[in-house]
């Protein structure tokens, strides 16, 4: 028989992608910032010169970018944090020392995004008015 022999661990024929691969491919390109529903609180941060607010269960996507800086207040007396970011997925979390900002892989990001919605497009000033 002509053709190449299959080696151990190599799939035979066409194989559908795993659920993890499918989920990871659903993460938008660019910088993805997520405030999971589990934080229970709204987070405000500065992305370059733009103030962005995310309710619990919201995410924000910035089309493909070069490196930028995200700044946020950790709360209480824990101070401010500056984090350089680029086209990756980041998740806010709350811990014993206030807000944290963590880099996550595409599979974890996809899992978070299944429970989240895009952020409201209302500017911060408009959202604060009755």
Classify the beta-strand content into a percent band.
Answer: 35-45%
In the predicted model, the low-confidence regions spanning at least 5 consecutive residues are 1-24, 123-130
* Class by alpha and beta content: alpha+beta
**CATH topology heading:** Immunoglobulin-like
Helix-residue proportion: 10-25%
Number of extended strands? 9
Provide the number of structural domains: 1
> How far do the termini sit from each other?
76 Å
Q: Summarize the helix and strand pattern as letters.
A: HEEEEEEEEHEH
Characterization of this structure:
- α1 packs across α2.
- The strands form 2 sheets. Strands 8-7-1-4-9 form a 5-stranded mixed β-sheet. It has a 4-stranded antiparallel β-sheet with strand order 3-2-5-6, with no helix packed on it.
- The longest helix has 8 residues.
- It is globular, with a radius of gyration of 19 Å.
- A hairpin with a 2-residue loop joins β7 and β8.
- It has one domain: Immunoglobulin-like (Sandwich), CATH 2.60.40.
- The protein is an alpha+beta fold.
- Helix content is 15%, strand content 37%.
- The N terminus and C terminus are likely disordered.
- The protein contains 3 helices and 9 strands.
